[in-house]
Amino acid sequence: MLALDLSNDPRWLELVAGVRLQVRPLTTALMVAARSDPAVAAIPDDASDEDRALVFAKALGRLAILDWEGVGDAEGDALAVSPDAVDALLDLWPVFEAFQERFVAKAILLDQEKNV
User: Fold this and answer.
1) How many whole angstroms from its chain centre is CA 110?
2) Range with the lowest mean pLDDT among 6-10, 26-30, 84-88?
């Protein structure tokens, strides 16, 4: 059975030790907006699946991440959420993997279920 969460309230997502993100719900509108991101549209046809996943995750992250805890600059000061900061955060392999697993994978699993 598919359980629907009818709340559009942001939620906190635990990623890696000490880092958590406040994200919008992963809705169809959010996925469509991420797919329309210029960086996603500019992915070359011969790009690897890994490169495509990173570009898409960054586009989705820039749209979905509203706030965070445990993310700082080189001096250790809290860093505000910005497109460049989201991209830098998702360039860290453990963070990218956790974001893929805990946020993006839910949409992919639902998409696969409808194609069975």
Assistant:
1) 16
2) 6-10
Question: Does the pLDDT of residue 109 top 90, yes or no?
Answer: no
The 10 Å Cβ neighbour count of residue 88 is 15
Amino acid identity for residue 68 in this structure: W
Q: How far apart are alpha carbons 36 and 33 in whole angstroms?
A: 5
Residues 39-49 pLDDT 10s: 999 999 999 99
Asked whether 82 and 88 are in contact (CB, 8 A), the reply is: no
Supply the DSSP symbol for 92: S
**Tally of CB atoms within 10 A around 90:** 22
Q: Which SS3 state, helix, strand or coil, does residue 42 take?
A: coil
CA distances from 51 to 48, 106, 107 (A): 5, 20, 19
Residue with tokens 């559009």: 8
Question: Does the structure show a pLDDT above 80 at 112?
Answer: no
